[in-house]
Design a protein that fits this description.
- The complex is a heterodimer of chains A (about 400) and B (about 80).
- Chain A is an alpha+beta fold and about 400 residues long.
- Chain A folds into 3 domains: about 110 residues, OB fold (Dihydrolipoamide Acetyltransferase, E2P), CATH 2.40.50.100; about 45 residues, E3-binding domain (Dihydrolipoamide Transferase, Irregular); about 220 residues, Chloramphenicol Acetyltransferase, CATH 3.30.559.10.
- Helix content of chain A is about 25%, strand content about 25%.
- Chain A is built from 8 helices and 20 strands.
- In chain A, the strands form 5 sheets. In chain A, strands 9, 12, 15, 17, 18, 19 and 20 form a 7-stranded mixed sheet that branches. A 5-stranded mixed sheet of chain A has the order 6-1-3-4-16.
- In chain A, β19 and β20 form a beta hairpin.
- In chain A, α1 packs parallel to α2 and α5 packs across α8.
- The longest helix of chain A has 18 residues.
- With about 80 residues, chain B is mostly helical.
- Chain B has 4 helices and no strands.
- Chain B has one domain: Non-ribosomal Peptide Synthetase Peptidyl Carrier Protein, Chain A (Orthogonal Bundle).
- Chain B is globular and about 35 Å long.
- Classes of the chains: A alpha+beta (about 400), B mainly alpha (about 80).
Chain lengths: ~400, ~80
């Protein structure tokens, strides 16, 4: 059971997507776990063959509990398989014998790929139909094959109502139509726990910086002029890319504070704060955001938002963010002062674009201005370098064509 | 495509984004972003869906005309009518 964020202590295994004997490769989604932040797709971090399922459906197990055994290429069959841990076990079971298959999918550390390419192996995991957890449960209860259901949700995902239609039932009344079956009370508790811990442990400092984005908005409008809606960019993509590039140049804002020391992250995985319809918030990662072209970043952002709102976040997206960006600007908020999501050490806020009188080349004129904010962890950085970091983001936004 | 079809397409696509909203209760003159809690990503997804479904190109410069339900339907009706002419 992987840790999918600060203060997660346990998770409930609600669906296995593989069975013993199935071949899997690194990155495949193998199970779905219900957490306070909703249902999360658990990816596997090793390629091989599923040897044994250790955790039964609907069992709640602590973080760190092995969920399954996987045999990687070249490993020999163990004489005695490790017994499955009890669902209520307080501590992880003892390490497996040397000959036993590796434990998966809890490992986050890089794992060596198998010697033999897994592509040569017979049947791998079937592609998952995109469906909300509620839709999955309903389909499971009525033995409906989701591949036969037409999705009407974001990116064609299957909603609860779609499965209901398949069942031949009338659509639920509007007040019961809330699709993604998220437990808003549990999510509120998870946010409360993480934010309270942040405020208890992290000595925040706050900075703000106003940035003229007139040129940026013109560039964006020009760029989108000839594009169909599928390929249009949003300002959020430019903001995220700017923060990612600035994080690369100021690594003290990109990483984790653990065990009384800062660990800079090797990659820049930007957590994007996404509001959940009906309440709540989550900030899954856009992986390697500094390396992505704007078009790729935008495409991945659209996918991430759609999946998050459909309740289909992946485990790595929950556990990997190295810095967070929150964009409340379009809600009319001019500046926001975020609370750092531990163990991260910084969160950047992007406010609304406002038309202001602004001095350019000695003359006052109307310009579009946003307020960027930084909440920084004073255990790791000081306001001085924070100011340089914010200024760098602002500078990057002056040359959108280079992002 | 009739005006009824356009209205149905708009309602369905908006409902895909905000499934909890009863479209019959949405004030046609209200700002959709506020009454349906639609952000820029939702709006882009809506424009994309309408583009695919009705074959209508909606340039960014026209977005302000689609702020309300009534404005959206009037805009799409006019676009489809001019495409037929």
């Amino acid at each position: 059971m992987p840790s999918l964020g600060a203060d997660m202590e346990a998770g409930k295994l609600v669906e296995w997507l593989v069975k013993p004997g199935d071949w899997v490769k690194r990155g495949d989604v193998v199970a779905i776990v219900d957490t306070q932040k909703g249902a999360i797709e658990i990816e596997i971090y090793q390629s091989g063959q599923i040897e044994q399922i250790l955790v039964e459906l609907d069992s709640k197990v602590p973080v760190g509990t092995p969920l399954a055994l996987i045999r990687t290429e070249g490993e020999t069959k163990p004489q005695v398989a490790a017994p499955p841990p009890k669902a209520t076990a307080a501590a992880p079971p003892p390490p497996s014998p040397a000959a036993a298959p590796s434990i998966a999918p809890m490992a986050r550390a890089p794992v060596r790929p198998p010697a033999v390419p897994i592509a040569a192996a017979p049947p791998s995991v079937k592609p998952l139909p995109q469906a909300s957890p509620a839709a999955r449960r309903l389909a499971q209860e009525h033995a409906i094959d989701l591949s036969t259901v037409k999705g009407s949700g974001p990116a064609g995902s299957i909603t609860y109502a779609d499965v209901e239609r398949q069942l031949g039932k009338a659509a639920a009344p509007p007040e019961r139509k809330r699709a993604p079956s998220l437990d808003f009370n549990a999510m509120r508790m998870a946010i409360a726990a993480a934010m309270a811990r942040s405020k208890r442990e992290i000595p925040h400092y706050y900075l703000e910086h106003q940035v003229d984005v007139t040129q940026c908005e013109r560039w964006l409008m020009q760029k989108n002029l000839t594009r169909t809606p599928d390929d249009r960019l949003l300002f959020a993509a430019l903001a995220i890319k700017s923060v990612a590039l600035a994080s690369r140049r100021f690594p003290a804002f990109n990483g984790f504070y653990r065990d009384n020391r800062f660990e800079p992250a090797q990659a820049v995985h930007v957590g994007v704060a996404i509001a959940i319809r009906g309440g709540g918030l989550t900030a899954p990662a856009l992986h390697d955001a500094d390396q992505l072209s704007l078009d790729d970043l935008m495409s991945q952002l659209r996918d991430l938002v759609a999946r998050t709102r459909a309740g289909r976040i992946r485990s790595s997206e929950m556990s990997d963010p190295t810095i967070t960006v929150s964009n409340l600007g379009e809600r009319g908020v001019e500046a926001l002062y975020g609370i750092i999501y531990p163990p991260q050490v910084a969160i950047v806020g992007v406010g609304k674009s406002v038309l202001r009188p602004w001095v350019v080349d000695g003359a006052v004129g109307p310009r579009s201005v946003i307020t960027l904010t930084l909440s920084g962890d004073h255990r790791v950085t000081d306001g001085h370098v924070g100011a340089l970091f914010l200024a760098e983001i602002g500078n990057l936004l002056q040359e959108p064509e280079k992002l | 495509m009739s005006n009824v079809d356009i209205r149905q397409a708009v309602n369905e696509e908006l409902n895909n984004i905000a499934p909890e909203v009863d479209m019959a209760s949405v004030d046609p003159a209200a700002d959709l972003r506020e009454v349906m809690d639609i952000d820029s990503m939702d709006f882009l997804n809506f424009i994309t869906a309408i583009h695919h479904r009705l074959g209508i190109d909606i340039p960014e410069i026209d977005y302000p005309k689609l702020v309300t339900l009534a404005g959206t339907i009037a805009y799409l009706e006019a676009k489809l009518a001019s495409a037929k002419a």
